[in-house]
Amino acid sequence: MMDPEKFAVEFIEELRRSVSDEFKPSIRQAIAIARMLKVMEGRKGSLTLNDYIRACTACVPPEVKDIALAIAYRLINKSKGMGRRWKFPFIPPLFPLPLGIPLPTWTTPLDEESRRVLSKILSGDSKAMKEFKEVAERDPSKAARIFKELERLKPSSLDLDAFANMVAENIRNLSQLYDVLLVSNIIPSDMDRILEETISRYPLNQAFEYAKKIDRMTGLDLRSALIKQCWRICQRTNKFPSPDEVATSPLPIKEWSKLLDSSIKQEVTHSLTKPNALQRLVGLARKLRWYSELCEDVKCAKELRKKSKEIAKMALKLAKEMGEEEERRVREELSKSGIKVGLLSRLTSKDSWRDLNSSKLEEMMKDALKKGDKDTLSKIAQSDLARASRIARKLGALKEFLESLLAGPGENLLLEWYRSRSRMDPSVRNLVKERIKEVLMNVSREYALSRFGGSEGGPLPSLMLKPYDPGEDPSLVDLEESLENILSQGKLPRNVRYEDLLMRSTESSRIAIVLLNDISGSMAGDKLYYMSICSLMLLYAFRRDEVAIAFFESNTYRVKDVDEEISIEDLADELLELEAFGGTCVSRALLWAEEQLKKARAKTRALIILSDCAFYDYEEALALIGKIKRMGTRIFVVTPKWSYEEGIVKALSQMGATVVKIESLAELPDVLTTIITGL
C-alpha cells in the first residue's frame, strides 16, 4: 500500500505539472489529502483504491477532476502494495472499474497486433510504417498506445514526430480524440475538420460532452469552437439541431443563444403543422423548464426559463381559442412544471430565490440565521446549493446551514445537489454530501414503504425440515419442532447442540429483478436523481430478494449482483457521485444481465431497462434481449415519451418486450412499482 503522505506529495507535484496556472494546487492541498487518507486509514484499518480516488477528487477543482483521476491511477498502478484491495463496488473482469470511474485507456495492455507492429518498428522493418498507418486509420487510439510505448522506449533511430503526425491525421472526431488523449498528448492541428465530422456524426449534446471532457483534460476551449462551428454549419444548411440537443449543451456565448432561438423556432413551426400542436407546445415548454433546472450555468438557465415562458404563452394563446376549459387545463399542466404565465411572481418560488444576486442572498441568509429560520435557509439551499454553501461558509455559519438542509422537502434538495454539485467548493462539498446522503436514504426508504409496504422479500421457507447450521438465517428455526426434537432425545439444556435445532429449508426467491439504468448523454431530464431513487427504493423493498442493478452509457458500471449483499449507505454515497456521459452502448450491460439471471434461483424473472433506446450497438442489443427473453425472462423497457428511438422501440415490442412510455421522469418510481407488483 502506498504511504498516504508520499502519495499526496507525488500526486500534487504531478498535478502541478499537468494543469494550467489557474488550477495549480498548493502544498495545503497535499496536506489535506494526506490528512483525509490518514483519517480513513485510522477509521477502517486499511486504505482502498476508492479511498485514494475520493481524497484526490475531493481536494481539487471540478475543472481538473479528470486529470486528477488519471494521475491518481498512474501513481496507484506504480505502487506495489495495492494488490486487489478494491472497495465496493468491485466489477468483474468484463467491467473492470468502480462505479462512476471510466477505464483509463493506458491501463489496457497492447494487443497482439499492436505488439507485432511495435516489434517491427523497433527492428527497423521496412513495412512497419505502412502497418502503423493501417492501425491509425482503423483505430487511432490503438496507434496512440503504440506511440506511447515508443515514447517510453525512446529509440534514437526513429522520428517520433512522424508517428505522432500519423495518429493526428487519422483522428476524425472528438470521440476518437478523447480516446487518444487518454493515452498521449497528441492534439491535431486541423481541429475544424474534426469538429465538422463530429457534428455530422453525433447529436450536438453528445459532441458537447466529449468537448467538455477534452477541455478539462487539456485546458482547450473546444466547447466554444464546437458551438460556433455548429452555428456556421446551420446557417449554411438552414437545418438546426433539436431544442433538446441545444438546451443540454449550455454555453454562455452568443452563438449558443442564436442556436437555441433558431432550434426553437424550427420546432414551433413544425409543431404548428401537426394536429396535436397544442400538446407539442406544452411539452416543449415543460422540457425547456426541466433543462433550466439542470443547467449549471446561471446565464443559460435564465435564458432557458425565458424561452420556456415564451412557448407557454403561445400554448395558452392557442388553448384560449379552444375555450376556457382547455385554457384552464393547459395552465394547470404548465403550473405543475413550475411555469407561471400571467401571474405575479412570488418570492417563495424557487426561481425567485435563484434570480437574487449573491449580496441580496447573503443579506437574507444573515436575517434567517439571526431568527433561527431553518425553513428560509432550506429554501435558499434548494435554489442554489453551491452558492448558498459558499455564503454560509463566508458567514461562519456552516454548521447551522447544514442542519437546515433536513428542514425542507428532500426531493427538491436532492435535485439541486445533482444540478450544482460540480460548482461546490471542495472544502465544504463532502460535508454537504453527507447531509444529502442522509436525505437520499430517507426519501428512498419512504418511497419503498409507500409503494411496497414492509415487504422484505427473500427466500421462501418450505415445509422441509433440516438441522440448523451456524451462519444460516436464525429466523427460519422452527421453535416448536426444535423443542420437540430436544425433548424426544431426553437432552438437558447444557447438552443441546446446534444440530438439535430444526429449521425450515428455503426454496428459491419469489422474484429476480435486473435493473439497467441508462445514464448516457442522450437521456435528458433529472435522470440521475430519479434513477438513484429507483435503485435504492428497490434495495429497501426487496433486500432479501434477488436484485441486480447496473448503470450504463459507453461503459457499464455494476452496482449489485443478484447474490450479493451491499451496504445501502455505501451505495448512496456512490450514487451521489454518479455522472452522465458517453453514448448509449447497452450490449455489455445485457451480457452482465444475462449472467445475473442465470445465477438467479427465482422462477419469476424480470429485466427492466430505463432508457431512450438510442443504442449505438442496437443489433447486438436486440440479439441479446432475444436470448434473455428465451430464458423465460419478462422484458420491460421504460422510455421517455418525448425522446426515444422509434425503430428500436418498435423492434423491442415485436420481440415481446413490454414498452412503457412516460410523460415525465417523475413517473419512474410509480411505473417501476406497477411493473414489479404485476409480476
Question: What's the SSE blueprint?
Answer:
Blueprint: H1 4-18, H2 27-44, H3 49-58, H4 65-78, H5 112-123, H6 128-138, H7 140-153, H8 160-169, H9 174-181, H10 191-201, H11 204-218, H12 222-237, H13 243-247, H14 254-271, H15 277-294, H16 298-321, H17 324-336, H18 350-355, H19 358-371, H20 374-383, H21 385-394, H22 398-404, H23 410-420, H24 426-452, E1 459-467, H25 479-488, E2 502-509, E3 512-518, H26 527-541, E4 546-552, E5 556-560, H27 568-575, H28 587-599, E6 605-610, H29 618-629, E7 634-640, H30 646-654, E8 658-662, H31 668-677
Parallel strand pairs: 3-4, 3-6, 6-7, 7-8
Antiparallel strand pairs: 1-2, 4-5
Radius of gyration: 28 Å
Q: What is the count of DSSP helices, taking H or I runs of 4+ residues?
A: 31
Overall body shape: globular
Structural class call reads alpha/beta
Provide the low-confidence segments as ranges.
80-108, 343-351, 454-463
Strand order of the biggest β-sheet: 5-4-3-6-7-8
Tally of distinct domains: 5
Count every beta strand, where a strand is a DSSP E run of 2 or more residues.
Answer: 8
User: Which percent bin holds the helix content?
Assistant: 55-70%
- Strand residue content: 5-15%
- Please, what is the average pLDDT? 80
Q: End-to-end span in angstroms?
A: 48 Å
Biggest sheet overview = 6 strands, mixed
